[in-house]
Amino acid sequence: MSTTTPQLLSLSLRSYSGQVELHQHDFHQVVLPQSGSMEIEVDGRGGKVDASQGVVISAGARHTFLANPHNRFLVLDVSTDGGEAQQGTIASFEPLNDKRFFAVRPDIRHLLDYASCNGPRLVGSLAMAESWSRLLLCSLLQPEVARSDPGQFILARALAYIEQHLGSALTVHDIARYAGTSERRLYVLFGQHLNTTPFSHIANLRLNLAIDLLRQTSLSIIDIAHRAGYADQSALTHALKKARHLTPAVVRKQGPLP
Predict the structure, then answer these.
(1) Whose CA is closest to 151, among 181, 175, 173?
(2) CATH, residue 85
């Protein structure tokens, strides 16, 4: 996903073209979703990076990927070459060498939610980026959720459904039916694992999508509002001001992410 060798830990927000790309690099990489999705194949194993799943790309692994339009991903590069003081962090990544696709569990979801609300500040501060990155690595080293605990897998299905239908009218009934659970159980899972409600989560994702479209496209604001699931331009403007203290015009002037 990058051809530049990073420092020990390098965290960035990236968007990709809608074309198939082939890469191979001598550092490890973790790719997590912010908005949109990506089809990716790593050393012959295919999968998807979306609201429910991320991927680890080990140093030297050949990988091809195709991102859907209007995407944004958090990418953590971890160097395999460092001084004596850095060997501990490098060694801590070794258990992940054979890991590829992983579920976005609640602990990782909390990190993503924080990054979603503090993206530019997070990647712009070396201290914050390193602290966040170390928390992510610690989470990835935890054992996978046992299949005997279906709650987190129900939640993952619900999150994936929401991501795929942001531009449509979403109801808790439809989300719960797709995830194979009841509406009451869905509220419990969101509160227990994400400390939020389904509608609050949807509102946050819609804002992220609208911001991405404002920065990366020349679509009219009314078109962006509709694509992100808002009734009209004023609804988008109100939500953006209330949650992020921004206006569509200000976001558009910021331009695309580097």
Answers:
(1) 181
(2) 2.60.120.10
